[in-house]
Amino acid sequence: MMVLHVSYFQVVQSVVASAVNDEGERIHPRKWDSHFIGLPVVNPKKQNRPTRTAHEVEQIISHAQGQGHVLLALLAGSGVRIGEVVAVRIGEHLSSDCSTIYVRQSMWHGKEQDPKSPAAVRDVDIPEKLASLLAEFIGDRKDGLLFCTASGKPLCPRNLLRDVLHPILRKLKYPQMGFHFLRRFRESVLQMSEARALLVDYWMAHENREMGTRYAKQLVENVEWRKEWAEKIGLGFNLTSLQPEVGKPGQLLESETQPAKAA
User: Fold this and answer.
1) Closest Cα partner for 179 from 190, 189, 168, 191?
2) What total number of domains does the chain contain?
3) Do 145 and 197 share a structural domain?
4) Dihedral over alpha carbons 35, 36, 38, 43 (to 10 degrees)
5) What are the pLDDT digits (tens) for 4-61?
6) Which domain holds residue 193?
């Protein structure tokens, strides 16, 4: 709740600061005193940042069916954010062999928008086993969203939590958490590898001052080098194959297409 209050305050700051005159000067200049207005101080060490072990991630993914299985595997094996994953379009944001995700947009409340930050515009390379699972899941589809409802509409992350992730966590008796724990898991796998921090930051969309150098840019644009490291690092967990009997690729079960209930 404390973090939420701070986030709200940051929105207010941004709105006030956005008001400028024809000369580009702020109309309402403000010097904010966090202590005076009683804004909570967020201690990163005390923030709840749940994560799971490789064995636990394997269990969670193996209990998912249909495209839920593929979606969780992709989140854990790529570190891509949930909003970025549900915005991926076949033919536009995937390489022909499905080994690279081109993150160029994100999804928010069913609408496509720019990614979270300039650093989030990136190419994320994934190991061959995960790429093969994606290719199997896509089948003969040539366009459209990678993950979608039976009618082809964008998936709602909130519905995915309710119908896919949270039921699995309850069944396994794990604490309830959001999709971000899978991103943290991928980060841990990358950090434990011998890959350069430059490459890790690029894939994970972290701001990195070194990324602005000409040498660094040449490195991350070396696709062969990136893919080689993606394969060396691997997934960090064992990936089960997609079971054909759970439903057609690109469709959720009927229960997964129902609108989220009001909180």
Assistant:
1) 168
2) 2
3) yes
4) -10
5) 454 555 667 677 777 777 766 778 777 766 666 666 555 555 545 567 799 999 999 9
6) 54-257
